[in-house]
Amino acid sequence: MKQELMQKRQQLVERVEAIRADYRRGLNTDSEERAQQLENRDTLYELERISLEEIARIDEQLKGLD
């Protein structure tokens, strides 16, 4: 169980890191591409939020296993 939680946590951390890397890349200069990126930002923000919440839940579960 602990190993599964740690693997899931790592996957979530990697997801958050990828999302944040996407934010750092900034917006495209092409207006159509930029519009699509802005639409995707809302989805990415929500995925980041959910992932961070899940990481916090997993951390709590891991504390209980120690």
| Largest sheet descriptor | none
Order of helices and strands: HH
| Shape type | elongated
Show unreliable segments. Answer: none
CA radius of gyration is: 15 Å
- Report the mean per-residue pLDDT as an integer: 91
What proportion of the residues is helical, as a percent range?
A: over 70%
Distance between the termini: 12 Å
Oligomer: single chain
Classify the beta-strand content into a percent band: under 5%
Task: Write down how many β-strands occur, each being a DSSP E stretch of 2 or more residues.
Answer: 0
User: Structural class given helices, strands, pairing?
Assistant: mainly alpha
Number of helices: 2
Structure report:
There is one protein chain. It contains two helices and no strands. The chain has helices at 2-25, 31-65. α1 runs antiparallel to α2 (31-65).
Would you spell out the secondary-structure blueprint of this structure?
Blueprint: H1 2-25, H2 31-65
Helix pairs in contact: 1-2
What distinguishing features does this structure have?
89% helix, elongated
Provide a compact summary of the structure.
It contains two helices and no strands. The protein is an all-alpha fold and 66 residues long. The model has no long low-confidence stretch (mean pLDDT 91).
